[in-house]
């Protein structure tokens, strides 16, 4: 059992800072060298919160999707195993439940271009949306050693290409893609009362000034005298991601019983998402690629920004391959001695006259047990949990309001709050959350989230929208 001393004053300040009003998002965009070369398998965000009688989980992939990225638009890979993992209780991070997503894309229908048929003839057009290929997915639930298919051959919502495609290919009158994409054609009930699922492209709900942030942490609010050109901007504005959305009855994730109100280690979950590829990949002479052997994990995400801001560059690929149960043993030093503080010190952010001058980097870059306590929901303000395991999982006590770090809600509600994750974690890491605020100057997403499932905003349209739109 892991017992870490708490910093009572800091813990209270942490809970206040992390409950500040805002919108919730996490980022794991291109955070490691290897996965940056494999965007279809790259986890970006993970949200999970209690909404009424359900647990909502949104696992997103494929960072920096340009909406106009045709003619071969972004999509899930048929060669990747996408998984949502749920551990239960205080003593284990092994999966109590696993939801596996596999994709299948039909081939373009072949035809003879010399015959000059009228489109859509299937295969000889220049436009992929006319060529007949469709992608479907199957969800398999793993629980107690049993494998159960709970949704088979469900259609993936298509890309938001433009009004002409909406009308002539999708058959949408008036170009109404938003309602079409979340209609019953794509919003599916899972078998056995397992809840609902939705899969497809959405607006990237992460918002932050990534550009200035990775210029040696030169975010405008952290500079005493920023240059005139240092204007905070949402670097992900106008980009899409691909999302796996689940809405699961609470009893299904709580071992068969509805959760009871109030803090409880036993009804606390640990949620994370991953992507895996086959160990052996063979490129055939005809261009076909085959995967052989066991699955090997290549990406994961749990808590926000862990592999981005806490794990050192030399271990980021290793972190993506590791299981959360081994995080304290393998990467505990990174949590206790955050590199971001050292980098900020090198960049001069703690020097006299700078906004962080009041803080002692020497105290902030060593023995940060407050980070482990906070992510483990140990402070009294977070329920006073005594969890025996620590790893990169998003903890959520089903009997408590879903306010980060106890889950992360994307939209406001009566029993959950929103949090500007970027500001909250910068504040926690760089100041110890002692009442100050360290942020990036970006306070909201570029699109309004939906009030209903699947909650993320509609995917941006390639023909008339995107990150270049004023």
Characteristics of this structure?
470 residues, alpha+beta, 5-stranded antiparallel beta sheet, 12 strands, DUF4331
Plain-language structure description:
It is a single chain. The protein has 470 residues and is α+β, with helices and mostly antiparallel strands. It has helices at residues 8-18, 163-168, 177-181, 210-213, 250-253, 306-309, 316-321, 327-336, 339-346, 361-364, 369-375, 421-431; strands at residues 43-51, 54-65, 80-88, 97-105, 135-143, 146-155, 188-190, 195-203, 240-249, 268-283, 289-301, 394-397. It is built from twelve helices and twelve strands. Strands 3, 4, 5, 6, 10, 11 and 12 form a seven-stranded antiparallel sheet that branches. Strands 1-2-9-8-7 form a five-stranded antiparallel sheet. A hairpin with an 8-residue loop joins strand 3 (80-88) and strand 4 (97-105).
């Amino acid at each position: 059992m892991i017992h870490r001393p708490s910093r009572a004053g800091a813990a209270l300040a942490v809970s206040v800072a992390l409950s500040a009003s805002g919108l919730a998002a996490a980022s794991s965009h291109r955070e490691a060298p290897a996965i940056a070369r494999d965007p279809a398998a790259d986890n970006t965000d993970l949200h999970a919160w209690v909404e009424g009688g359900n647990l909502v989980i949104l696992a997103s992939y494929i960072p920096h999707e340009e909406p106009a990225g045709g003619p071969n638009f972004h999509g899930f890979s048929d060669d990747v195993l996408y998984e949502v993992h749920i551990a239960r209780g205080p003593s284990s991070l092994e999966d109590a439940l696993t939801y596996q997503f596999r994709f299948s894309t039909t081939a373009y229908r072949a035809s003879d271009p010399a015959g000059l048929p009228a489109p859509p003839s299937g295969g000889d057009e220049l436009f992929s949306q006319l060529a007949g290929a469709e992608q479907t997915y199957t969800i398999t639930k793993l629980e107690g050693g049993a494998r159960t298919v709970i949704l088979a051959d469900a259609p993936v919502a298509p890309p938001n290409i433009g009004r002409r495609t909406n009308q002539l290919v999708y058959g949408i009158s008036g170009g109404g893609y938003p309602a079409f994409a979340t209609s019953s054609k794509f919003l599916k009930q899972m078998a056995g009362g397992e809840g609902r699922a939705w899969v497809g492209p959405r607006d990237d709900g992460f918002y932050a000034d990534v550009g200035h942030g990775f210029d040696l942490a030169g975010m405008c609010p952290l500079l005493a005298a920023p240059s005139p050109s240092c204007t905070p901007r949402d670097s992900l504005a106008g980009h899409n991601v691909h999302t796996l959305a689940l809405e699961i009855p609470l009893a299904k994730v709580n071992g068969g019983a509805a959760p009871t109100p109030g803090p409880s280690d036993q009804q606390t979950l640990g949620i994370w998402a991953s992507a895996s590829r086959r160990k052996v990949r063979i490129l055939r002479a005809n261009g076909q690629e085959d995967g052989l052997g066991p699955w090997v994990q290549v990406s994961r995400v749990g808590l926000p920004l862990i592999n981005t801001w806490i794990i050192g560059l030399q271990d980021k690929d290793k972190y993506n391959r590791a299981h959360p149960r081994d995080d304290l043993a393998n990467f505990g030093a990174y949590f206790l001695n955050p590199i971001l503080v050292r980098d900020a010190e090198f960049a001069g952010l703690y020097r006299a006259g700078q906004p962080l001058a009041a803080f002692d980097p020497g105290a902030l870059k060593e023995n940060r047990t407050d980070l482990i306590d906070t992510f483990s929901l140990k402070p009294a303000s977070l329920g006073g949990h005594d969890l025996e395991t620590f790893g990169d999982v998003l903890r959520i006590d089903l009997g408590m309001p879903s306010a980060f770090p106890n889950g992360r809600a994307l939209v406001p509600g009566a029993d959950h709050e929103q949090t500007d994750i970027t500001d909250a974690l910068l504040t926690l890491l760089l100041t110890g959350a002692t009442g100050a605020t360290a942020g990036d100057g970006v306070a909201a997403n570029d699109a309004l989230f939906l009030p209903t499932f699947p909650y993320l905003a509609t995917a941006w349209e390639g023909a008339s929208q995107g990150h270049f739109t004023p």
